[in-house]
Amino acid sequence: MSTSAALQPGTGEIRATEYLAASLDHLLWGRLPCATDRAVLEIDPGTEVTIDTISHEGVLEDQGRDPAAFFAAHGVERAFVLDDAVALAASEYPRNASDGPHVVTGPIAVRGARPGDLLKMTVLETTPRVPYGVISNRHGRGALPGEMPAAEENVSIFADLKHALDGSSFGTLPLVPGGQRSVRFPLAPFLGIMGVAVAGAERPHSVPPGAHGGNIDIKLLTVGSSLYLPVQVPGALAYVGDPHFAQGDGEVALTALEASLRVTIRFDLLSQADAVAEFGVLAGPLASTSEFLVPTGMDEDLDVAVQNCVRAALGLLEARYGMDRALAYAYLSAATDFDISQVVDIVKGVHAKVRVADFAGVAAGAARHTGGGIGAVRRGRHGANGSEERRG
């Protein structure tokens, strides 16, 4: 990324033909889309879209709702502050005190998407829009409420981004306030929020995740990874937001390294029949990477979230590989990590990492599905011969 200025709206490289800026008419703040929301973009399955996202850090009321002033206090020149973030903070956006903090871009309608289908969102590119980020411990939240922060105050820690000689990027922090930035940690940008609209006329709060996806905070969703979401309304009405530069599993302080990204996402569809054969009946999000299949479990009780994730993993192994449930349970215990996605978003998240390589020896006919594997998606409403696709 160039360090001469921030990656402002419409400037710099835009990978996809379809581009969605984070302008005021393309955003929701504190709430997520529902069935009655109007799509700001309509696309065919298989379309790539480049999307600008805005981090909520620096635009919130308790930070002054003035990003230019907030970041200037950390030594950031105005050229490095995003114009769309400044415009949002200065607007009269009708955000209530009870709403969440997150800013999402969308919603995007995918033609032909119907309830029961799966929407596949594949991350193709994540580009930092600014060379800094914020880690916050605020509002008595985090894993140690009442204990951290030590004083009764909200703490926002500013982190610089640097580039190594090999081209990699890393974040920096000091050992003590005002000290030399001698602590370095790797960056792995991803979107904390990827989701689809819920049924009904009420927009859900942006903080707790659910079957719609939303604030799932799964750090595995970096470039090359995909998220599968059960479609709940016609057109799916997808959205993205809560951009991160880095996160530890758990996200224990309330936020990770939050900062704005420009992302490119490809949107594909699996029909309901193909989705069930491929993954079983999904009660919530499922991620995939080159190495893992990643079923999820969520609940306000962490123990129940773990149980839900185990059930999701069992269903996945049964549907995808035809594996006996008792044997699948044994496999998960012996070979699969169950990681905590986050514990700070009211609804806690757990995700399993099922190694795809462990099933490389499964014969093609052993699984009960009949499709072309995890990449078999419906890219349009017509089959290969151009005829209207029949569903049943």
Automatic annotation (TrEMBL):
Molecular function GO labels: hydrolase activity, acting on carbon-nitrogen (but not peptide) bonds, in linear amides
InterPro entries per the UniProt record, alphabetical: FmdA_AmdA (IPR004304)
Protein name: Acetamidase/formamidase family protein
Source organism (scientific name): Herbiconiux oxytropis
Upper taxonomic lineage: Bacteria, Bacillati, Actinomycetota, Actinomycetes, Micrococcales
